[in-house]
# Entry
Amino acid sequence: MPPTINTNATSLHSEPVSSEETKDLTAFSCPVPLPARERILLGHGSGGKLSADLLQQVFLPALGNPVLDRLEDQAVVSVNGIQLAVSTDSFVVKPLFFRGGDIGSLAVHGTINDLAMGGAIPLWLSAAFILEEGLPLETLKRVVDSMQKAAADAGIQIITGDTKVVEKGSADGLFINTTGIGRVRDGVSLSASQARPNDVILVSGFLGDHGIAILAEREGLQFETQVNSDSAALHTLVGRLLEATSEVRCLRDPTRGGLSSTLNEIAASSRVGMELDETSIPVREEVRGACEMLGLDPMYVANEGKLVAIVAPTAAQDGLRALQSHPLGKDAAIIGHVTSDHPRMVVMRTPFGTTRIVDMLAGDQLPRIC
Amino acid sequence: MCLAIPGKVASTEVKDGIRTGRVQFGGITRQACLDFVPEAKEGDYVMVHVGFAISVVDKDEAERTYALLEAMGLLAEELAPDGAAPADS
Amino acid sequence: MKYLDEYRDARIARALAAEIRRRSSRRWVLMEICGGQTHTLMRYGIDELLGDSVDLVHGPGCPVCVTPLETIDRAINLARRTDVTLVSYGDMLRVPGSDTDLFHVKAEGGDVRIVYSPTDAVNLARSLPDRKVVFFAIGFETTAPAHAMAVLQAQRLGLKNFSLLVSHVLVPPAIRTLLGSPKNRVQGFIAPGHVCTVVGCRDYEDLVREFRVPIVVGGFEPIDLLEAIRMLVIQLEEGRAELENQYVRSVQYEGNRPAQEAIARVFESADRKWRGIGSIPESGLFLKPNYAAFDAERLFDLADICAQEPAECISAEVLLGHKKPTDCTAFGTRCTPDKPLGAPMVSSEGACAAYYQYKRHLVTL
# Structure
């Protein structure tokens, strides 16, 4: 008999990121049909508003279903009573190798983390490669060895895969997609829609390391830095947290778009506001220096080995201690709280006690000169 | 305009007829052109805009003016330690 | 970070704000010229700290915002050419031209690249001898010396494939236009500290004398701006109109001589169009004729590209300080950072974008 597959989530059609902006956009572009002039921009992949628009205008109208509509980082489905988490992610980072990692280890960590954010123990990964004609074999071997090591360190296996080759010029060397399957821990139910007023917001450590490590290697911005990408598998850190407290509402890893995108997404999904304390947000000195030089805000810079946790107020101290007890969470901090004020808006209290909005970016953050 | 930030000159050299320096900004280092600040030497702080140093930070002036600001800050704190505005404002 | 962190001290900020509130007998109207200063004011909520004691108005301090529409169109035209690599600072990519922007051109296949420094553009030209590398050279006086050096370096290296599309604007003529307008409400100015680092203070002293308005040269950190505001308020309360320098750690009265020499060698001033404002006499820098080989305007056929500005955008009024971004009927609705009508909403330094990004929760739309 075929297994019963239960898509058990309540159909929670995801709210647009901010109602004002969506009202504006429909005035300019109707989802169906798309104006012929419209094209995909790099910003559509940046994790900010453009990415959210793409979901609303293209993917959800075509593919929407109760599981997909939840728009969590992983899909949770039930098979014969067992909760499985499934997640997929593609890795297109350039350069392929950077301080603290490479596209291979990133591809393993990234999907493990998406599963972990759903409270799942990662079990298996698939890996699909799109290779550019002319890619040196040595490069590919380096990447694959890195993947093997990352998987072994994380205790998971890559069980199936695929390879395609495209013509020179089409793929920036190498693209990887990994899809992961994990088993959701018993009794754990995490979702971006569960944040409630007075919940506490925690981050597991320094923000902005990955984005700055990558930028340092890009042409046109050259600077020397000792900053390493923080790329890491977070499932054991999550395990530590979930063992310490059962009152975790939501976990997310703030990748592209940075902490601000993640918090804005949760705020929108839960229809709550958030208030952050600028002085509590952990950023390394070097990352700060790079951001000052380029006119970037660390709140928008990508991370690949950090998590944001929204927990009940009574669980905050236990949660913080649990994170800090783990090597990947030793610099964890409480950075703010959820509020019923200004729903869907994330606000920051500056060191002067004044407030400013932490908005979602439209596309990519651009280095500025002014 | 314009974004210029202070950095410390870690070393200098002349390359292709241009004087450049390795300048440290809180933990990251970048090359900057020092041709506009011929007097800048190792250990000096310079204001760097788009990869060019446009001034040497005047340490004495900075110290002098900052001391006045600090005194103001301390005094205000003594008068209104919770950060509230003074009574006659 | 030394010379940065201490100018963000909360205790000193509160003390300065309290002093400003204490000394203001009326709500003085003050303007900061530079977009970077606007950014700081918004980011630290300085207006909130000052309450009603001062009315802060934002000036035309964003060279990205004031770059004329047709210059953007010309850059777009160049970026679309298959033999051209257009190199630009990040801010320019999202600024709308007449019908598109550089980001979209990049998406369509145009070779558009972002750099932090003009030196990187020169290096790019060296490494791509078969491409025509055009550097979109925008800015105030602060960036002009760096652009001058880029030209001189390219000349020294004998590069034949490097040119600048220049859109440089000068601040004092803009202030003169502003002060000369009957609608002007501004009573005191914070002069842009990095511009003055390069060109010195003389032009601003002339403005003080001509218009009897106090001007303080200010830095970019919150303490710098609060201190500059305090100095202006004291002058106004005492009925004085003088030039003062708050940013003494970087600005000398004479400015930076080697930088000024570099500018004078390569550039000359002439009338320039400002987006949304129109032509301001002697307000722009252009490459001298003997550097024609590095002037994209001369090298490429661009003269036919002209543009009309959209009606609803009140950039001009905002840039001149007559109106606040929130006075615009399109602010936050038809004009947002995602779909900007005008440059002040796109550039992260633009007043409209700063308001939108940091402050719109205080505005009832």
